What we know:
Pfam families: CelD_N, Glyco_hydro_9. The protein is an alpha+beta fold. Helix content is about 25%, strand content about 25%.
Amino acid sequence: MKKSNQYVGKALFVFLLVVFQALAVSAQQSAFKLNELGVFKKHGVDLMIYNDSYNAGGFFDEKVNGIEMIQHGVRTVTGGAVRLSPTPEQWDLVPVVTSRVIDAKSNTALITLFYKEFNFTSKIKVEGKDNGCLITVILDQPLPKKLEGKASMNIEFLPAVYFKKTYLMDNQVGIFPQVAAGQMIAEPFSEKIPQFNNLLTSERFGNTYAKPTPFAQGKKLVLSPDDPKSLVSIASSTGEIGLVDGRNLASNGWLVVREVIPAGKTGNVVQWSFTPNSVDGWIKEPVISHSQVGYHPDQQKVAVIEIDPNDKALPTAILYRMDEDGKQVKVLEGNLANAGKFMRYNYFKFDFSSVKQPGIYKIQYGTYASEPFPVGKNVYDNIWHPTLDTWLPVQMDHMFVKEAYRVWHGNPHQDDALQAPTDTLIHDGYRMGHTTGTKYKPYEHIPGLNIGGWFDAGDFDIQTGSHNTVIGYLVSAWEDLKIMRDETMVDKDRKYVAIHHPDGVPDILQQIEHGSLALVAQFRAFGHAIRGIVQPHLWQYNMIGDAGNLTDGLIYNPNLKPFQKDGFTSGTMDDRWAFTTSSPSGDIGSAIALAAAGRALKSYNDSLSAECLAIATKVWNENVAKKTENQNSGDMADFPVDFRRSMSVGQEANLTIELLLATKDKKYSDYLTKIWPAVKNNLGAGRRMSFGAGSMRTLLKAIPYMKDDYKNDLRLQAINTSKQLDSISTTNPYGVPLGQGGFYSQGGNFAMVDWSLNNAKLHQYFPDIISKEYAIRGLNYVLGCHPASSISFVSGVGVNSKRVTYGNNRADFTSIPGGMVPGNYLIKPDFYENQENWPFIWYENEVVVDGCAGYIYLSALVNDILQKETGK
C-alpha cells in the first residue's frame, strides 16, 4: 500500500507539472484580435461570434450556432449563448439574434438575443483580452420569473475531442467520460421549459421529467490540460460554473459548460475569462486529396494538396508504385501547380495523368504520404455495389431485413397510418392545413399504406418527394445500363428481405417496385399524392435503433385504453400519421416517377406497371392537358412567382416526356412542342430550370421523338453549359461547384452527384461539347478529392472511407455500408468540416435515400462511359 501511495503521489506531481507548464505557455501567447468577419483570431485558434444563428422555425439547434471555436484545425466549440436548459436538445427553444455589432477597432462583439416565448432579451459581449477574451452576459431587465434557475450562459464542447482527456475544476481532477455517465434528477413536469410547438423529445412518464446535473462544479475549469492542442480554461468572476454531459438526455448531446443567471439581477450577470490555448508554431498537416477508389488509366488524374497558409510549400510531389515484394518504385516526380488560396488554405495540384500502367500507387509530399490507390480499368466496376446490395435494402420499410447473422430491423409500421389532424405543425416541416383533403377523419386509420417505401434517411419517415427522385434515378440506371446485379432476396408475401441471397430477379427492379408500391398506395387511398408519413411524437421521431420498435404494429383503436391490446388493435396512439395535403405539383411529381416506373416494371410486374401508367396518365389529363389558365395558380404559394412558373412548366415537360417514352403516343410529343418555348425560356444562365433532379436529363431523352429544332436548342444549352463548366474549373482547386455544402446546397454530395449526372448525359448526347471529365470529376470529389480530408464520403467504398455516419445505427458510432453522406459543410466564414469522429451532425453525415440512389446511377454510368469509350 505504501508503494502504491508513492506511485500515485509521483503520478500526480508529474500530471500537475504538465498542467502548470501548459498554463504557463498559454499565459505567454499573443493577443486575441477580432476581425471584420466577426472572428477573434490568434495562431491556431479562431473564435467565431454568431457567424451562424440558430435556425428558429426550422431545425433549431443544429450545433453550428452562436459562439464557436476552431482550435488547431478542429471545431471544438459551439452554442455559446444564453439558453433555457442545462443541455439543450435540437428541438429546444432557441434565441433569435436581433442585433450583431462587430467592432474590430475596440476588439469587441456585442450580440443581442431574444426569446419571444418569454419576451426575454439578453446581450452577450465578447471582448478580446490578452490571449483570451471576456464573455459577459448583460441584462437590462431581471430574468422573467419562469426562467429563474433555468436560464444560463452555455457553451458546448464536442465530446469526441475530449475522449481520453482530462479536466481540472478548481481542486478537482477528472477524466472526461467516453459514454454518458452524468447524474440525472427527476423534476416536476410543470417546471420543464416547453420545446418547439410543445412537442416532447422524451416520452412522458408520470408528472416528472429528467434533468441533467453537473458532474463537476467550481469557479475555474481547465479542459484537456494534458493536450495543449485542445486545452481551454474558463474562469468565472460572477458565480459557479458546471460541467454537464448532454449525452445523458440526448444521444447527440455535447459537453456543456454553464453558469446559471442569478435571479433579480441586471447589468453584468455572468462574466467568464475564456482562454483557449495556442501551440506556438503549430501548422496543420497537409492533406493529399485523391480518389480513394483510384483511377481509370485513360482519365485525368490530379491530386490536390491542401496546406496551411503558414506552411512553406514544397515544389514537387512524388508518385510511387508498389511492387509485388512491397518495395516502392519511383514513377514520377512532378512540379506542383499553384492553385491559389481557397477559403483559409493554400492549394497545389499534382497532375499524374500520364501514368497509365495498372498498379497500386501512392503520392509522397515531403514526409506525408497518401493512402494507396489503384490505377486500372476496373476501378469503378463495383463501387456502387455496397449501396445497392446493403444500404438500400436496409432502408426498406414494411419489411424484415436480415444480412447473414445480423438482423438490421424487424418488420416496421404494419399499423400505418392514421389521418393527421388539421391545423397541425410538427417536426421536420410536416404540416396540415384547415382540411385533410380526404374522406378520413383526424386520427382515423387509413388502410393500405403499410406497403413499400424506404426510410428517408437516418429517421424513419416516408418522404414522397424523395421517393419520386429515387425512382427516377433507379429507372434511368435500369434503362441506360440494364443493371442485372442480384444480391438480395425480396419475399413480398413474407415481407422478408435477405441481403447477399440472390433470388433470380435484378435488385434494381425490386427496388423500383418497392418504391412504386408506396406511391401507388397513396393514389389508391386518396386519389392523389401526399406529403408523407411520419412518426407523430418527437420522442418517436428521434429514436435510434430498430425501426420495428417504433410502433407496436397494431392499428390504433380509440375504444381501448393506452397500452391495452385485443390481439388485433391497440389503444396506444403510436401509429404514424399521413400528412395528406394535396397539390398539383405533388401529384405531377409522383406521376413523373410512376410513368417511369411503369416502363421499367413491364414484363416483371405487369399489373403494377399498368397501374403506374394509368395513374400518371390520369394526372397528365387532369393537371396538364386540360389545365385551365388559373387552375394551379395557388400551388406552391410560398415560393416566388418566377420559381412557380418555372416549376410548373418544367413538371409539365417532365411528365409529358416520361409518358411519351412509355407510350410513344404522338399527342405527347405534340404537347411538348406546344410548351417548348416556355420550357426553353427557363433554360440557361440566370434562369432556374426548377423541375426536379432530372430536368436536363429528361429533356435529352425526348430527342429521338422531336424535330431537329428541339435537339438544336439543347445543343445550344450544352454549349452554354460548357462555358459554365470551364469557368467553374478555375474558381476553386477542385474544378467543381462549391458553396455552403451540406444537404442539398451547392458543394454538398447530393448536389454534386446531380451536377455530375447532368454532365455525363450531356456528354453522351454532345460528346464534342461536354467532356466526360466533368462527370468523373464530381464523382472523384465524392470519393476523396475534396477539401479538409481525403476520405471517401461513401461508407465501405475506397481505401479510406466514412466509418461513422448519421444512420439509424449512429448511436453505435458506425455506419451502414454504401451510404453516401452530405459531405463537407462550410463553417462560416471559411472552414470546411466533415466530422468523422462524431456521427450526430446531420448536415454533414446523414445518409438519405435519394442521394444514394443518385450515387448508384452516377457510379455505374461513369464506369459505362469509360469502358465504352476507352475499351475494357
